[in-house]
From TrEMBL:
The keyword Iron applies. Radical SAM enzyme that catalyzes the addition of the adenosyl radical to the double bond of 3-[(1-carboxyvinyl)oxy]benzoate, leading to aminodeoxyfutalosine (AFL), a key intermediate in the formation of menaquinone (MK, vitamin K2) from chorismate. Binds 1 [4Fe-4S] cluster. The cluster is coordinated with 3 cysteines and an exchangeable S-adenosyl-L-methionine. Its EC number is 2.5.1.120. Residues 58-288 form the Radical SAM core domain. S-adenosyl-L-methionine binds at F78, E184, R195. One of its GO terms (biological process) is menaquinone biosynthetic process. [4Fe-4S] cluster binds at C72, C76, C79. GO terms for molecular function: 4 iron, 4 sulfur cluster binding; 7,8-didemethyl-8-hydroxy-5-deazariboflavin synthase activity; aminodeoxyfutalosine synthase activity; iron ion binding. It comes from the Bacteria. This is Aminodeoxyfutalosine synthase. Belongs to the radical SAM superfamily. MqnE family. It catalyses: 3-[(1-carboxyvinyl)-oxy]benzoate + S-adenosyl-L-methionine + H2O = 6-amino-6-deoxyfutalosine + hydrogencarbonate + L-methionine + H(+).
């Protein structure tokens, strides 16, 4: 149903008309939306698009987040998870130690392990292969969604293998999908200022291109809320959109609201709820070729996630069990959530919860 009141602003009305006619939004359109104070119109338009794509269904998954190591050679200004080798709190788990951790926290229904960690130069690439293999052999029924594009680039550097060869080695031991992290903001200027000394823009995109060409479906992210401009954010989305036109390999786009614990990141306070909602809505409008936009409750909280589900988001993430990276950076949200709370969250927004697997196949619809 058309519930959007025609706008007195000619540019806003032009954007509304474009979206309804199936026309692609431009850089100028995206920047205008960020500069507009008409959040309700932007949110309603994003909701309209989402309802066309996904109806009232909101997806979630029973998953666990796992972190093999926090030792990392990169020194990204916004990260408080990384440690130097030998520093207090630094760790590198063996495959067996990770299995023991999972066995302590595992519960029936977990369908996915979300695996990321530091770029640890003190262990060989084979360590990462063997770690995945150990998990896959112990829990063959659980899908391995592992490593960021930045980690794949790191593995390539320490092994001398190409991206394709690295991915093929990991696929042999059970890798089924890549996580979306490491994108941050896809801008060389941003990455230099924020000391993102890992995969650059072209490398991040090339890893995902290679993964898609091998048949892997992947996630992608945008870490917003520090020094980047609105134009930087829109250009980021447009680069993702362009690769999706080419490969159709991204399953979901995940806007990640920056957490403020590290003053070196140039962050004085958290993003406002207004900015978080606007970013989710604009993501839905700009990324016309990606099926799902995720509202990541770990970063924006459960109640704001409910609102986001009416402003373009169609994925509420998953149970997680014990998230560490955002919480090490100052997130005040729960480290995990139960299935029952996820159902409450989604139904409370007037939506239909759908339990999914890693590939968005529907497991159960909770009417």
């Amino acid at each position: 149903m058309n519930v959007i009141i025609p706008s007195d602003n000619k540019q806003m009305q032009s954007i509304i008309d474009k979206v309804r006619n199936g026309e692609r939004l431009t850089l100028e359109d995206g920047v205008f939306l960020y500069q507009s104070d008409d959040l309700l119109t932007i949110g309603q338009l994003a909701n309209e698009v989402n309802l066309q794509k996904n109806g009232k269904k909101v997806y979630f998954i029973e998953n666990m987040s796992l972190y093999f190591t926090n030792v990392c050679e990169a020194h990204c200004a916004f990260c408080n998870f990384r440690k130097d080798e030998g520093a207090p709190g630094a760790y590198t788990l063996s495959g067996q130690e990770m299995i023991e951790y999972v066995e302590q926290h595992f519960h029936p229904g977990v369908r996915e392990f979300h695996i990321v960690g530091g770029h640890n130069p003190h262990v060989p690439f084979q360590y990462y292969v063997d770690s995945l293999k150990a998990l896959h052999e112990r829990f063959p029924e659980v899908t391995l969604k592992a490593y960021t594009a930045a980690e794949i680039d790191f593995f390539s550097r320490i092994s001398g293998l190409s991206y394709k060869e690295v991915l093929e080695e990991l696929m042999k031991v059970g890798l089924k999908s890549l996580t979306g992290g490491g994108a941050e903001i896809l801008s060389d200027h941003y990455r230099k200022k924020m000391r993102v000394d890992k995969a650059d823009v072209s490398q991040y995109l090339e890893v995902h291109r290679t993964a898609h060409n091998l048949g892997l479906r992947t996630h992608t992210t945008m870490l917003y809320g520090s020094i980047e401009s609105h134009e930087d954010r829109i250009r980021h989305m447009m680069q993702i959109r362009e690769l999706q036109d080419e490969t159709n390999g991204f399953q979901v786009f995940i806007p990640l609201s920056m957490q403020p614990i590290n003053p070196k990141a140039g962050i004085r306070r958290r993003n406002s709820a207004y900015e978080d909602l606007k970013t989710i809505a604009i993501s839905r409008l700009m990324l016309d070729n990606i099926q799902h936009i995720k509202a990541y409750f770990i970063n924006i909280g459960t109640q704001l996630t409910q609102v986001a589900l009416t402003m373009g988001a169609s994925d509420a993430h998953g149970t997680i069990v014990k998230e560490r990276i955002s919480h090490s950076a100052g997130a005040l949200t729960p480290e995990g959530i139960t299935r029952e709370d996820l159902l409450w969250l989604i139904k409370g927004a007037g939506r239909i919860p759908v339990e999914r697997d890693t590939f968005y196949n529907e497991i159960k619809v909770y009417e």
